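A favour, since you know our C-alpha cells better than I do. Just paste the record in under my message, thanks.
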Amino acid sequence: MIDHPRLVELLARYSARRGEFVLASGMQSDFYIDARLTTMSPEGLSIIGPLALASLRERGWSVDAVGGLTLGADPISYAISYASAATDRPLRAFTVRKEPKSHGTRKLIEGPFREGDSVAVIEDVITTGHSALRAVEAIRDARGSIAGVLALVDREEGGRQIIERAGIKVLTLTTASAIIAALTH
C-alpha cells in the first residue's frame, strides 16, 4: 500500500512556503509549492512513482509513455517509469522542451516517445493549466494521443477546469488545501 498521507507530509515539510511570491503564471500568492524539493528527493521519488502508477492504472488509463514540460514533470515521469519497470506494462518517460533544440535534430520532445503513443501528460503543480496544455499541444503535434493529465498538486486556482474544458481528463495526487492543512499540524 502506498502512503498517500506521507506524500502530503513531504510536500508540506519540504516544498511548501508561506510569504509573498510571484508564480510562473505571473499571479501573486502568499503560498508557494516548489514541488522539486520533494520530487527530486529519494523519499519523494520512492513514494510518487508507485502512487502515480497505481493512480493511472486505477483510472484505467492505458498509456505507453509519461512526460510533460521540463523541468517540473521530469522527476515525476522518471519515477513513474521506474516504478513500472517490473510490471507487465512498463511505461517510457520523455521530456517536452520549452523550445525546440537549435541544433542536431531540433526536437521538441526528448526521450523514447513514439508517434502513436498514448500518453499521460505529467505536471508537478497545476495553477493555470497552461504548462500542461503546452505539453499536450507538442505531443499532439508529434502524433501522440492524450489519455489525460496527471498532476502531483492542484493549486485549486482554476487550472484543472481549464484543462478539462479543453476536453482532457485530469487526475491529481493531492491539492494545495491538503498541503496547507498539513502545514498547520
